[in-house]
Amino acid sequence: MDIKIKNMNNHIKGILCIIAAAAGFSFMTFFVRISGDLPTMQKVFFRNAVALVIAVITLILSGESFRIEKRNRMDIFMRCLFGTSGVICNFYAIDRLDLSDANMLNKLSPFFAIIMSIPILKEKPSKTDVGATIIAFIGALFIIRPTGTNLQLIPALAGLYGGFGAGLAYVFVRKLGKKGERTPIIVMCFSLFSCLVALPFLIIDYHPMEPKQLLCLVMAGVSAAVGQFGITSAYKFAPAKDISVFDYTQVIFAALWGILFLNEIPVLFSIIGYVIIIGVAVFRWHIARKGSQAN
What we know:
globular; mainly alpha
């Protein structure tokens, strides 16, 4: 009985942590948006600089080594490459789409991860995963609305690539996790790589910032850190198959901030897309839990 109660408590803690992470990431997109008319690369630099400082401090306080195993270096590079390009495209989309649309396109990352896990991790997806991925992309079309008159097509495609980059980065994070690489090292390398990529653009096209803009970008970094730590803690308390669906509350939070503070009302086609993508995510979660209970 005590074990069941403990597992239930951990399950609840996992759900609360992943919802907190979703709120953190939604606030990140919100602060990126309200930071104003600044170059995308400038926003990327300051957002990741904060995460870099937090990761370095975490490593120092833990007393762990900064050394990276030679066998992990290429995987870390690939995680950094696709993670950084994904963040850049995500930030570009955030500035040009409704917050909820940009967040939803980014939340296609689990479905991209399913596809890219086939060649990289040699994992064979189930028929349910294949079907869910196809349906999720149909949902994405309602958000992207690829017509000749859609002025938001390019930002929407950038947002779609942001989800792809994040999904592929997660695959390499998982591969690194299987090889025993530490989370602070992965976060530090990604943040440092992103800052180095953004730095030349920052130097060439730096836009002076008002204190409010700088505060917004710092808060974007802090919010992203809350999201990262929340996700890490959540999956320590409970397995992904039990709680991952709650990560989609990020879209709800983002839509709420957009309605309350930015006067953004999602159009009907976008809402249909949200329902399709979140619905298929809930279905995958239900099937995963059902299969786990059967075993």
